[in-house]
Structure formats: C-alpha cells, structure tokens
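Subject: two folds for Thursday's group meeting

Dear M.,

Sorry for the delay on this. The cluster queue was jammed most of the week, so I only got both jobs back this morning. I'm pasting them in the order they finished. Each block is the input sequence followed by the predicted structure tokens. Could you check whether the formatting survives your parser before we put anything on slides? The first protein is the one we discussed after the seminar.
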Amino acid sequence: MQSKLKLLKTLKYQLYELKIVVLKDAPIYFVKKLYVFCTLLLAGMLAACSVSPEDIKTSANGDVITDLRARGSGRAAPFDGTVDTKADLHDLLLTARGDASLDLHRGHDGIRNVLEAYLGISHDEMHIFMDQKGLNLAGICRHFGFDPENLVATLTASFTPFIDEGVENGVILKDEARNWTEQIRAEFSYRVYWEGK
C-alpha cells in the first residue's frame, strides 16, 4: 500500500510538471482542461486505492529523537520562527498547543517534520489515522506500540533550540530557560493527548 501512495504522489508531481514545463506554450484553455481532466483522473485513482490505517506501516522505532529542530512556524502557528521578544516565546507556547479549531489535527505545519520523523509515516498517513479512526497523536503512537511520552519528549526537544535562541538574544535569562522548556512540554503533552472537541 505504501508503494501505491508513492506512485500516486509521483503521478501528482508529474501532472504538475506537465502543466508547468511541457505545456508552457500551449493555449491556456487547453492547459486548464487537461489539468482538470488529470486532476479528476488522479482523484478517481486515489478513491480506488483508498488506504486504511491497517495498511500503514511505520519506519520508526518509537525512541526519543533529540537532535531534530522543528520548523516552528506555519499556517496555523502564531510563532514566526525567531525568538527576539518575549511575545515570541508566548507564540511558541501557542504553537506547541496547536489550534483547537482544527480538532484532532491542531495544525501540523510547525512540527510536521518532527511528527513524520518520530512516527515514521507521512503527514497524509497521519491524517488517515485521525480521519478514519479518530485517533489523536497518542493513539497513533499506541497503534505502532510507541510510548506517547516519547513523542512529547521529542517535540519538546525540537523546540529547545528556540528557547536557547531566546537566551542568546537576551530575551530571557539562562535560568529561566528550564521554566520555558517545562511550559513547552506541558503544551505538547496537552496536544498529544487531545481527544477533540
């Protein structure tokens, strides 16, 4: 099933390339019609190859990852990616908690790379677990036999560089960093165990 997902992603990318590169000199109405046709074709193929959570395999082992930095910023994340004011640290806390209006998803942009590395699955596969089985991040961990606390520790470690940046930039004192790290950990714990509205 993993290979089908990769094939479909490759097809989607090739369709995009076809639109940009090969058809750059074609009349615009032709390009639009071809792109709509190909998109509908791809949607049909995706429906025919629907993936269930039982088909998804992990490439990870559930160990804490300590050397991975989260992106931090993203569409649903108030944090801008740099800690140069105290407001940035508060935004970092909000980013760690996630956006409750997105229900189980809570907005993965700022931590997507960390979730994919820890869980050993793609972002799309994460959504399959959330949408089809109603699992939160802790539930996905348990599905693979991972300790959800290891995910909390991994996410916390991925935000530690931002707190260190706050110390380096004189936003907080070095002895305040531990308190901010604990707050980040609490927010990530809330997010990992969040059961929805």
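Second protein, same layout:
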Amino acid sequence: MVGGEVSVAAMHQTGLDGDVPNCRRFSVADSSKLVELISDIETEHGPAVTTIENRMLGENSRHRIVVDGKRVTRELTATSASWAHLEGTGGYLILGDGQLTAATSRRIGSSRQVERSVAEIEPENRITRTWVTLDLIHTATSGAWMLLPGASEAETRRVAAKASRAQAPTILRNDGTAQVVGLSDARTTAAAVWKPSTITCAEGLKIQCSTAVLLLIEHRRGDLRLTIVEPTQQLDSITLRISGTWTIVTHEDIDAQDISLDPSDRSTGITATVRERAGSSFTLALEPSPK
C-alpha cells in the first residue's frame, strides 16, 4: 500500500519446515528508511534469530562492517547493540531489545552446479566470495530494526544518536493482533491490524477496527488523512471507529456512495464498501466536525 511518500506492506509468514517459523512481518518505508517489525513468532527453541542481512560481496572484497563503531573482522556479538553499518550498503538500527551478531566469512562455491562440499568442486571451477551476515537474536514475542539504504557510517552514527533521544520511529505496538509504527515526524502512523482490535496512533488518536486492515494515518494541522486497505479481499465492507467527531472532506479511489458515516458524541464510525476492490487502497481526508 502506498500513501503519499510512505509505503507499507504486511505478511503472515508461514514456514514450510521447522527452520522457518510462522510469524507476522510488517514493513514501513519512505525515501530514506525501511522499518521492519516481526512478531507472533512460533518457535520451540527459545529466543528467535532473525537474519536482517545476508549479503554476498565481490571477490576479494574489503568492505568495512562495524557494530557500534567496532570493526568486525570475523565475528562480533553485541548484547545491546544500537547500530551497525556495512560499507557500500547502508546502516542498520536496532529498535528495541536484542542481541546482534555480525560475521564476515569467505565461502567457496561453484557457478556450474550445487556441490555438497568444496572437495567435490574441481579446482579450476572454484569461486571464492566474501559474505556478511547480521543476525538479530530476540524474544519470540517481537523484534524490530531499521535499514538506512546508502547511508554512510557517520550518518548512521548520527541517526542512532538521535534514536537514543526518542527521535527515531516509535514502535507503538508489535504483537499478533496489531503492529503499529509511529514515524519520526510524530504525525504519521502506519498499522497492520491482524484481528479486530483498537489501536492507539500518534497524538493519542484511537481507531477501532472491525477486521484485518492496513492503515496509514497522517495528521495535518488538526485534520486527518487515512489510507486504507482491506487485505483479505474477501469482505463486502469494513468499519473503523475513530475517536473524535469527523467529517469527510475528500475521498480518493472510492466512490462517495461506498462510504457512510456513523457519528456519536465522542467518536465517528466509517463504513466502506470494499467488495471487488481486489485489495486496492483508498484515501479519505477528514476534518473535525463543527461544534
């Protein structure tokens, strides 16, 4: 789903075997960053391990990788890392608790076929490459991180310092019912709601959702801009109830007859017909109702 300069996507990941557990993933991106959330992880092995980077570099690569300013030459584990940087790729910020393991290694393979061991590869067909991995070890409840594509090491360090002063994206909720991110401008909230529930957004706004839904909520000088997707593509309609009294000013990518309001003293219900929309998004601009 794309709303303005922000894009969101969500996935209920179902593993094909025990090595890839079921979980819920939520991604929020703009032109400078990608925020990733993972929650509701089904694992029987205690803490979960999420690989946030697994990159093959060029032959004889000397790309520098650091964790909290310390260069990684083989493997480094930091119990409370706040940031990492891979030269030529970008920066990574850990949003919340977790242990970060960074490793660099040389691997030998073949471009002709898949062999089970190096000894099976003819010497003239062997190819050596450098690999870098970043593994986030966290609880089975949740984990979160942020990628800064193309950022320098110095820029990543600066963003991490701002994050420590609560200027980074805020994880408002991250569980099996809803995943909610407040972006660093403090006026935009992105949410993946998996089950009927009420979520709290930026500036204390509350939205009660009748079903699974993807939302992008933008506050604009007292007004609201809602971008909405019904992701299951199976429902005839969806209903949201928003705290406060609101009036629809404009609507995009949906007809007026497909929207209805149900105002009360303290909240406003919005019902939208979503039959045959095939999961496409629509946007509503709202302003406070006259008192």
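Two things I noticed about the second structure. Residues 153-163 form the longest helix (11 residues). The mean pLDDT is 87.

Cheers,
T.
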